[in-house]
Amino acid sequence: MEQTKGDPGPRIGRRALIIGGAAAVVGTGAVLARDELSRLWWQVPGVEKPRVEGAVDYTGARWVAASSANWRRADRPADYTIDMVIVHVTQGSFDSAVKVFQDPEHGAASHYVVREDGHVAQMIRELDVAYHAGNRGYNERSVGIEHAGFVDRPQDFTDAMYTASARLTAGICRRYGIPVDREHIIGHVEVPGTDHTDPGEHWDWDRYMRLVRQAGPASTPA
Fold first, then answer.
1. What separation in angstroms does the CA of 84 have from each of 19, 180, 201, 217?
2. Which of 83, 121, 152, 172 has an alpha carbon 20 to 30 Å from 75's alpha carbon atom?
């Protein structure tokens, strides 16, 4: 679970004005690039990307909203390519993870939390950037999945948890064309600059990756 607070998104300065669909930079006359506009249009005052309240990206999940202070709005993958899944362990219970992710003072949250019995909660939409990896670039390109339990308690990583998490990850990989390999499905410990150790030595990567592959093309689309 990430402890690093804050991950402010790009801000539209006074220079950036939207005029008839074109963007001009005051004082320079330069025009913002089309891809930059695609990232920033929804941040203009009075403009908000349409959202469906309570919608989930994975049909097996139940929606439980994280505090808006623990993530930022985006339009992924239109603005940031999603090419990674990051595996976390909460170092606590499912309920405690949900509680802290709903706390605006916590400054961090993941997209999903998986319980020991396989129950999945989605707390942040995949199109948005969750503050979960402690690295802004990795946050922007990844989906974060927390697993309830402790890194030094292998019994917390149950069959139901592995199976549910693998199905979830397989669905994410299908949606965004992410290769199912250890370069694109990583642990929090593998994020550059992190001081975290999760998912820890007891997380069975060989088993997990095998389950993700098995849950791939043959599973029900998420």
1. 36, 9, 21, 18
2. 121
Residue-wise pLDDT tens digits, 175-215: 999 999 999 999 999 999 988 999 999 999 999 999 999 99
Whose structure tokens read 């292998």?
154
Cα separation, 44 vs 201, in Å, equals 45
* Rounded distance between C-alpha atoms, residue 99 and residue 158, angstroms: 22
Distance between CA atoms of residues 142 and 65, nearest Å: 19
Q: What is the value of pTM for the model shown?
A: 0.79
Cβ–Cβ contacts within 10 Å for residue 156, how many?
17
pLDDT digits (tens, 9 = 90+) for 41-91: 445 544 556 778 899 999 999 999 999 999 999 999 999 999 999 999 999
